[in-house]
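Table S7 (text form). Paired inputs.
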Amino acid sequence: MQAQTAATADTRADVSHYKLMLAKLATDRQRLKTIQSITRKVEVKRELLPDYEAYVTGALESAPGVQDEVLITVMVWRIDAGDYVGALTIAEYALKKGLTLPDPYERTLATFVTEQIAEAALSEGESFDLTLLTQLAALTERHDMPDPVRAKLHKALGMVLQASDPDHALAHYRHALTLAPRCGVKKEIERLERQLTVFPQPSDAEKTRL
């Protein structure tokens, strides 16, 4: 990855600016390495992220399509800091251009983004942003990843939808179960099946007439 980063750095139109940002990134990473507390690391990332805002905006607007360690690291930090909307903005560009995660990450970019955000949603609960999860699902739909990771996303979608749209929630839970039988949705499936038997949901046509 380091060799690839160096090679692409020298072919960029903004090579001088990119190298300056790489130097800043190295300094900021070194600062983070001195911090043992995960909570404090997240706080520091939130403090640092605004310093990269102008660079990210410029990179996404110019869309050079080359590997960009600064941009991808900012995406990771945004996820860590809870800025999932900002992270997905970068992820959409990165997936389109085929960018990869920097060392030492071993997962693909699509797998990483899906798993991190799905786990955050499952941790936060039913109040998590449904629009964001739907965007994530559409963004990563055609990208290969381990079945248990995609199952987490469907489990999260089921959780967020279960109060407002139990039919679709049940479909997501069932899909998650198919992908990963031990993903922990069996009880939710049974509960929703009982609920829908007692209180069946109107069809889309019936909803239109209501």
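Next pair, protein 2 of 2.
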Amino acid sequence: MTTPYVHSTHLSPTHTFSKSYTPSITLLQGLGVHGDVHSGKTVQQRRLSSQIPTAPNLRQVHLIPYELFNELSPQGFAVAPGQLGENITTYGIDLLGLPRGSYLYFGEGGDVPVVQVTGLREPGEGVERFMGGLLGKVKYISTGGNVVRRCGIMGVVVKGGVVATGAAIRIVQPEKRYALEVV
């Protein structure tokens, strides 16, 4: 089994759908990714900030598994890391299977950046505008009648620091397991 790691890191200083690759990002405790438009103590997403501008920002860091891109490619959807707006593309983690409150430690040793998982990303019309037909691949109704959302997870920075491409990821799950919900 491969040790989970950071495939790549991305940010955008403006409200763009996709984010640009950078070899590393700096996480700021309680804020998010330094230099990224979604960094802040209160919600930074355009739609949410217009509705409840003082709500806490539970979407400071967006993570997507690289494996999603591998699944989409044979279906005719060539999506590269960063193009769906994530800050961190992971490899070797079932992000969607993590319970809310899980901690992700980035790097080796004890003094490393930490993100706490807050919930699921809600894929919306931006995904469809980015690539026609893609929304139906990352958000759909399962055979059991449940809504499946596969566009990554969101988290908050509980300990700041630099997250670099290639960094190992260690996961600590809470004792009580609560399923991820949209944040």
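The domain at 5-172 is CATH 2.40.33.20 (M1 Pyruvate Kinase; Domain 3).
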